[in-house]
Structures are given as structure tokens and as C-alpha cells.
Amino acid sequence: MLIQALLVALITTCSTWWFSHAVTRTWLYPIWSGFLVGVVMGQPVEGMMIAAAINLPYVGFITAGGSMPGNPQFAGPVGTALALVSGLSVNMATTVGVILGSVTILVWTAYMSINTFWVHMAEKYLEKGNIRAMRFCNYVPSFFVSALLNGVPAFLVVMMGAPFGEWLQSFPMWIVDAFGIIGGIMPALGIAMLLQYLNKSKLTPFFFLGFALAQFAGFSTMIITFLGVIVAVLIYNFNGFSTEMAGE
């Protein structure tokens, strides 16, 4: 359990650490960080299911003008870890993940605010021509800040979070049911946010086509995705061909 807790803490730390985002932006999304948590905790399938459910409310997630509507970097790995160690259902895990993401906005704000000290320190080293010290300030301190603010709570969740499920189940049934209903609604909110980006006359027909194939033809998501890729490639090639013909 100790090794698992340390690995979960490392995953949570890297989910917020800016350098990991420079390598790949997938660290930002719960479906990746939560899946890694499931792998290190020996429950990859359950971890993926919970992580995917937590990720859905954040499907349309953007940080416009520095505004932070949630903290999916924390909600993904920590919410998945808490759900796995305490035996929460997928719906309840979604609710807990969203609550964690909302509450820990302050954690993100603290992380970004503290890291401004290293930026100013790096600028001073740069003025002195000390490139090595400047790079050190850019990379290393922010990792330990994330480890303190994100990794330590994640470690404690794995080590001490098992009774959380029993404590939650001790609530009156109507409260537990409410958590389950909210957990079922939150993914719909994320999908609705995503559809705002697709609310264009050229894209709307494809959305309803996919819905019709799933609802009436009974196609699985994988088949619809495969067909969607084929259609996208055909449209791309056709537009390129049309452009070439117009140029001639």
C-alpha cells in the first residue's frame, strides 16, 4: 500500500506540474491520470471506468482568461484513488471527483501564485548570465510545490481513504441517492458544454447522424468512431481535390 500511495502521489504531482504538460497535454485530463492511478493500484479496468466518468464533466473544460472553473488535474487522480480504496460506485465517484475539482481550485491558485517566486528568481539568474541556475528555477521548484500541494493529499487519500466509503454509506439513503443522481447528471453537463463547440451548421448533421446510428441502428461507440474517421478522411480528401480542380 505504501508503494501504491507513493506512485499515486507522483502521478498527481505530475498532473499539475507544468513540465509534464509540455511533454503531453493528456496529463491535464482525468481519463489519463485516473487510468494510471488504476494501473498502479492493480485495478486498471475499474480505474479507467471511474476516470472516464470523472472526465466527462470536464469534456468542455477551458481556462478562459485565466478563469479556472475546476481543477481536473487534482480531481482525476485523487478522485479515482479515493473511489478505488473506498469502493465507491462510478456515479458517486463522479460526484466526489467534481466536488474535489471545485474545492481545490484554491490549490491550483496557490500553486500558480507560489511559482511566481521562481520566475522572478530565474530572471535574476538570467540577468547574471547563469543559464543553468535559470533552468533549475524553471523546472525543479515547481515540481516540489506540486508535490506538497497535490502529492501529499493524494498520498493520504490512498493510505487513509478506505473508511470514506463506509462513512458515506452511513448517510441517510436519500442523501446517498442524491449523490448518485448528481453523479449521473454531471457527465451530461460536460457533454452539453462540448456540444456548444459543435453548434455549427456544418457539424450539427454529423452529431445527429451519430446519435441515430447509436440509438436506432444499435451501433457501438467504437463502430461509430471508426465510421466517423472514414467520413472525416473522405471529406478532407474531397475538399483537397476540389481545391486542386479550382486551381486548374
From TrEMBL:
The chain crosses the membrane at residues 32-54, 99-118, 139-162, 174-195, 207-236. The keyword Cytoplasm does not apply. It is found in: Cell membrane. PROSITE patterns: PTS_EIIC_TYPE_4 (PS51106). InterPro entries: GatZ_KbaZ_carbometab, PTS_IIC_man. It comes from the Bacteria. The keyword Transport applies. It is a multi-pass membrane protein. Pfam families: EII-Sor. It comes from Collinsella ureilytica. Keywords: Cell membrane, Membrane, Phosphotransferase system, Sugar transport, Transmembrane, Transmembrane helix, Transport. This is PTS sugar transporter subunit IIC. The lineage of its organism: Bacteria, Bacillati, Actinomycetota, Coriobacteriia, Coriobacteriales. Its main location: membrane.
